[in-house]
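Materials and Methods. Structural model of ABC transporter permease. The 223-residue sequence of ABC transporter permease from Neobacillus notoginsengisoli was retrieved and submitted for structure prediction as follows.
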Amino acid sequence: MGFDIQHLIELIPDINKAFYQTLYMIGISLAVAVVIGLPVGIILYITDKGLFMENRFIQNILGFAVNMIRSIPFIILLVALIPLTKAIVGTTIGPTAASVSLSVAAIPFFARIVETALREIDNGVIEAAIATGATPWMIIKDVLLLEAKSGIISGITLTIISLIGFSAMAGTVGGGGIGDLAIRFGYYRYDNTIMIATVIILIVLVQVIQLLGDFISKAVDKR
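The predicted structure was written out as tokens:
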């Protein structure tokens, strides 16, 4: 089957549903990634050698856990987390279930980005804050997060784009969203119309998010 405009129009309700399911999955997993990944990234940085809360034990344990999760291919992680997903949401299919695996994958990914952004801060700024008697919490809140906010926003943008790709992959195991639509119609039914449409939607979505993320990142960059 070639590209058929009339057929595409008939599938608009399915495309809309899949698109909103994708946004739903990304929204949940991004929120979890930021809430958990941000402090994890901060801890990875401040507990490193030579920093004001140096703790090699915590740094090594946390770093190992982050690297371990990041080393597992997402499709394997989806399967491995089925018991956890079942325990949390009561089902293993649908966008809510897929959000569990997406969140677990996104947390270490975003944490490492945060850590990298913090490492770009000039050590002199931190030393100056310590010299003025700033507490560790004050340094984190008023120095680290303030200085690294542009890099963190860029990290959020990169995390969203990665989640779009992961969410499409989640469709292969009944996670819903654009990926699920592409598999059900484009692959199993050899429907080129829906395959092309889903690819275009994903490309446009990524481009819009990247442009918006770059704009915000530059806007908050005080350098």
